[in-house]
Please model this.
Amino acid sequence: MKVEEIMNTKIEFIEANATVYDAIEKMVDKRIRSLVVKPRDENDVYGVITVRDIVFRVLNKNLDPNKVKIEEIASKPLVCVDKDIDIEHVIKLMEKFNIARVFVCEKGNLLGVVALLDVMSGSLIKRVRGGCIA
Model:
């Protein structure tokens, strides 16, 4: 099974200079677990901020989410794969880097994201079709 078969193309973004509180509001409102951080300028790259980042890097340290900027805790660069790559490779990347999502990129453009839940969904689809995930 290829990445493009299960990737989610609906990606939510946030500005690098937004506050963590802005991210919390957006993530809670949209019921999502991550936001892609826009590059600050042409020399910057995309990043990602997750619920885990907010909980462990801000809330757990009793920092004020209204004073912490996204760029201070975002992870950069994104871990990207090609849309034609096999899911098994994505699973290995997730395990190796201890991450829950891998982004699908092509020539510097962001096409989608594959999260752990997408991998599990892909497994079910594959099973229904009569195969296994591998």
Summary: The CA atoms of residues 77 and 87 lie 21 Å apart. Helices lie at 20-30, 51-57, 70-73, 87-97, 116-129. The longest strand covers residues 109-115.
